[in-house]
Amino acid sequence: MRLALIGVGGAGGRVVDAIRAVEAPECRQLCDGNVLTVDISRTGSDEHDHVPRERQVTVGDTRRGVEDGAAGDQDLAVDVVRADAPEIRRALDSITMRDLNGVLVVAGLGGGTGGGAGAVLVERLQQLYDDPVYVLGVLPAADEGGHAALNAARSLRSVVPAADSTLLFDNDLWVGPDADTDERYARANRELAARTVALFARSDPGPRSIGANTIDSSDIVRTLSPGGVASVGRATTELDTGGGLLSLLRSLLPGSHGGDDSDERTDAGKIQRLVGRATNSRLTLPCEVSSVERALVVLSGPPDELSRRGFESARRWLEDETDTVEVLAGDDPRPGSSTVAATVLLSNVTAVPRIDSMQRQAVDHERTDETLRAVDEPD
Ligand SMILES: Nc1nc2c(ncn2[C@@H]2O[C@H](COP(=O)(O)OP(=O)(O)OP(=O)(O)O)[C@@H](O)[C@H]2O)c(=O)[nH]1
Ligand SMILES: [Mg+2]
After folding, report:
1. In this predicted structure, what is the pLDDT of residue 79?
2. What is the pLDDT of residues 225-243, one digit of tens each?
3. CB within 8 A of 241, min separation 6: which ones?
4. In Å, what is the CA distance from 336 to each residue of 241, 245, 302?
5. pLDDT in tens, 320-336
6. What is the pLDDT of residues 13-67, one digit of tens each?
C-alpha cells in the first residue's frame, strides 16, 4: 500500500522520520517520497534526517509568541495553520496522490500542534482527496498531566469522526513513567515505525510472491473501513534453520520449497502461536480483543516458511478470539529474512480502558481549571 506520510508537530515529525528510516534500508516503500512534516516554529534540534529539507514545512514563523510551537495550546495551533493555509496547500501540491492509496497523518494528540493543527489538517485532506485519510495518533503518558490528557481527549473527538480510521499508540505503555530522555522516545518511535511499515508497506512483488494469499491495499482498506480506533500487535520468531547463510541461499533459490525443507517449514501450530503472541502481547493501544470489529493478520517472512495451513488456523483462531468473522490473513514474502513476523491489525476496537482513564483525567483537569479560575476571578 502506498500512503502519503504527513507528520504534524514534534512527535508527528519524529515518527515520520523514524518510518522513513525503516522503509529505506528494507526497500519497502510506504510513501514513495510523498512525505511532509508540518510544524509551528520548529527548533533546530528537530531536524529530520530522512525527510528532504524542502518537505519540512514550518508555519507561523512570522508570528510572535509561537517561538516554541503552540506550547500545548490547541486553539492557537488551529489559528496558526488556518492563517498559513496557502503555504500548507502549496506543500500538499507536491504530493502525487495519483500513485497513492491514501494519506497517513501522524501526530502526538497531547500536543498543541499535533492535536489541534493535526485535526484541522485531517478535515482539509478529506475535502481534497477521495482516498482514505488515516491517522496515526500518539496518546500522552498519564504522568504528562491533565493538560496533555485534555488535549488528546479533545483531539480524539474531532479526529476520530473525521479520519477513515485512527490507529493509536499509547505512550503510557511504550515510553514509561520516567521517560525524560530523547532516547526513550526514539526507542518507542522505532517500534511504532516498524509496525507501521510491516502493516502497510510492501516490497515490490517478485515472481515467487505472486499468490492468492498476498496482502494488498484493498485488504487493509476493507479492514479499516468501519472507522473508529485501531490497534496493532506484533510478534516475531527467529527461524531455526541451522546456518544463516545456508538458509538464506536456500530461501532465495527458486523452487526450494517442499522436499527436504519440509521439516524446517514453520508449521501451522507455530504460526498460530505467533499470531496468538502478536494479539496478546503489548498492543500499540491495549484493548479488549473481543470488542474488535474487523482484524487483519500479515505474516512476513521467507515464502517457504509461511505454511498455507498456518494462515487458515491463525485466521480461525483470531476469529474465535475476536468473536468476528471479519478476519483477513495474508502473507508478505520477504525472501532471505531470518525471522517470521506476525502483525495483527485490530480495527474499530471499542473497549479501551486507557481512553476511558484519559478522559477521566481530562475531565478532572477541566474541573480543577474551572475552580482555579473561579478563585482567581470572584464576582
Ligand atoms: N512516541 C512519541 N511521543 C512523543 C514524541 N514527542 C512528543 N511525544 C508525545 O506527543 C505529545 C505532543 O508533543 P509534541 O509533538 O512535541 O507537541 P506538538 O504537537 O509539537 O505541539 P506543541 O509543541 O504543543 O505546539 C506529547 O505530549 C507526548 O505525549 C516522540 O518523539 N515520540
Ligand atoms: Mg511542538
Report:
1. 94
2. 999 999 999 999 888 655 5
3. 247, 250, 264
4. 12, 9, 6
5. 999 888 999 988 888 88
6. 999 999 999 987 777 789 988 999 999 986 655 679 999 999 999 999 888 888 8
Which residue's CA is minimally distant from atom 5 of ligand 1?
Answer: 11
pTM to 2 decimals?
0.90
| Rounded Cα distance, 38 and 13, in Å | 7
Residues of the chain with pLDDT under 50: 206-210, 255-264
Given the C-alpha cell 485535526, which residue does it identify? 119
If one looks up domain 3-200 in CATH, what number appears? 3.40.50.1440
% of the chain surpassing 70 pLDDT: 86
Residue of 113, 154, 169, 232 best suited for mutating to test ligand 1, as the one with most atoms within 8 Å of CB: 113
Q: Does domain 225-348 have CATH number 3.30.1330.20?
A: yes
Which amino acid residue places its CA nearest to atom 9 of ligand 1? 108
Residue owning the nearest CA to atom 7 of ligand 1? 11
Q: How far apart are CA 327 and CA 296, in angstroms?
A: 5
Where does ligand 1 bind, in terms of residues with CB under 6 Å?
9-11, 14, 40, 69-72, 77, 108, 110-114, 138, 140, 144, 148, 171, 185, 188-189
Distance between Cα 107 and ligand 2 center (Å): 10
Q: Please give the Cα distance from 190 to 202 (Å, whole number).
A: 18
The domain locations on the chain are 3-200, 225-348
Nearest atom in ligand 1 to the alpha carbon of residue 140 is 29
Candidate of 138, 180, 232 to mutate for ligand 1, largest count of ligand atoms within 8 Å of Cβ: 138
